[in-house]
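User: Can you help me understand a structure? I only have the sequence.
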Amino acid sequence: MCGLAGFLRTPGTPERDAHKQWLEQMGQTIVHRGPDAGAVWLDDDAALVHRRLSILDLSEAGTQPMVSESGRYVIVFNGEIYNFRELRDELVAEGHQFRTGTDTEVLLTLYDVSGPECLQRLNGMFAIAIWDRAAKTLFLARDRLGKKPLYFYESGGHFAFASEIKALAPLPFVKREIRYDAVRDFFAYQYVPDPKTIYKNIHKLPPGHWLITDGQNSRQEQYWDVSFRSPSSASPQELEEGLYDLIDDAVRLRMVSDVPLGAFLSGGVDSSAVVGLMAHHASGPVTTCSIGFDSKRFDEVVWAKQVAQQFGTDHHEFTVRENVADSLTEIARFFDEPFADPSFVPTYFVSQLARQKVTVALAGDGGDENFAGYSKYRTDQIENRLRGYFPGAIRHNLFPRLARMAAMINSGPTRKARSLLGTLAQEPDEAFYTTNCFFRPDVWNALVIGELKRETQGYDPADITRTHYRRADTDDHLSRILYTDIKTYLPGDILVKVDRMSMANSLETRAPLLDYRVVEYAAQIPSALKLHGKEKKYILKKAFSKMLPEDILYRKKMGFSVPLAEWLRHEIRSLANQILTDTDGGLAQCFDMDKVNTLWQAHLSGDDRHTQELWSMVAFGLWWRDYV
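Assistant: Let's start by predicting it. Here is the structure, written out as tokens:
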């Protein structure tokens, strides 16, 4: 795991020494991603920098930037290619020679041989930058699911790239102007969906895409997408056995490491299955790490401890208790954009705990998106069935009026009725956006002011959800919303959170359930075997029923959540109050602060209806303080 950055040199820019200094500054901003080594590379047209976290071939021979066997290509690479040994054997058989034992050199040789087509042969997580010294073009690529980040700046004849936005800051030509529709997206989704960033001319390379540029003209292509077109006709038992074998192989591949390796363990199905398979392949006890809370509603350590005992792991726990506000301020700085998934706090602490023991940790990420593990999928399925019972005229005309009537009565049941009537009145894609929206449109319209209001007039962040929902190559509703989450929530929220928090602690995290073969296999499993009646992740649980006990498989899902309402009233109250009452801060540029304060005081009095909106505003305020 590493960090990378670079830029294309243009006529009229400073001399070599100045460019080298820029590179070194860029590398220093992401030293947490690669504390073991750093190096730069310049020629007349390009400049590259790399920070290394040594995982394979710990010798200096694995240092990047690395030049290809032919001398034509120079690479900086972040990630792991899990099948590099098999690829290396094939290349050796073709007559290629290798100087190192790294996956980097294998990747570089593959690109030398077949160009962008080499991406089809890779099983891994990666962000890649390769400079072609002959053609004077830069090639960028990102892994299929978006586990590793890659940003690029393109404006005014300048082009630069980096693993994190902060690494672009030392470049004097990079302008950071706020993008207003991205601000609106953030408050709707809790993150900024790709390809946007919070800045106008800085972009995310989307997952499963590559880009080639000469600095003036760029071409971008998608090389992978997941298809739900052809559900398998195999029997449930055959699908279960195939799924178990595939996940087992994905775990085996991800246990290749020249440094200590362990796992995150929550006691849920996904992480427990990963740990069980690791225990089968490991020669000694697997190191496992868990995070707990004082609040029993959010504490899963008892389940994690049960799994640890079953598989004889070397288990470690940490309980989040005090100084949450101090920690939050420091941790939030690792996000270069506003980010409001509060589970980044426990993710940071479990990464910190793991890094004390290991350099690589396997995790259970991806199980929910692949196998319908979130409660929202069940809720959405019920709503979609109800939607079919009513003619469109009734849904579109009568239900909104009933919802407005329900809004006049402030009670829990009527709020739920209003929500249900509202989503039933919508089409399935828009209703799924409503399910995923964390800042209700009526609250937004009541609060937003000024230039942000003018610039986002007529803009609807629901279009992002609609676009992906309609792009899925299936008519099956559950498959469409799984596809939408795989393309939005997974790379925009879950994987950003895990990457930033693990790399903040110089820890590499690997996700076997996001092996692209598992994702493609899961997409062919009929929906009824994922969400089976009320049972979520039905086939995954069946596949691991011989390994895991029933109380682990079928207990109520907690998720990696935090006691957010309580935190706002107690642990982070002072910090939140500073941000939510600051009439000169970032929020005051966006919202009517008197109305914000009304929501805040209601929350302090016990009204939890706007917890998520208030937290999103705190997260935005933290980002603004650090970066604007």
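Now, to help you interpret it: The mean pLDDT is 91. The chain is about 45% helix and 15% strand. Let me know which part you'd like to focus on.
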